[in-house]
Amino acid sequence: MKRECLCCGAPQGMERFEGRPLEVSYQDLKRTVPGLAGWACSECGEVEFDGASALRYAKAGDEMIEGSSPG
Ligand SMILES: [Zn+2]
Fold this sequence. Notes:
Elements: E1 2-3, E2 14-26, E3 29-41, E4 47-49, H1 51-68
Antiparallel strand pairs: 1-2, 2-3, 3-4
Bound molecules: zinc ion.
């Protein structure tokens, strides 16, 4: 299943993925979020998560940032 990438315009650039672990990084911290689903462009590397996956990915990043701040 493929579709156009809105980022770089490649007609079949975006390819469906499911159950893929992806790394969130913030400064020198890294965390892997497992089981993400969405679309990824093979041309420019743009990633577009499904709603639930986007939330989990964002939450992992937020937790990492909160955990790293003093106090
Ligand atoms: Zn692209």
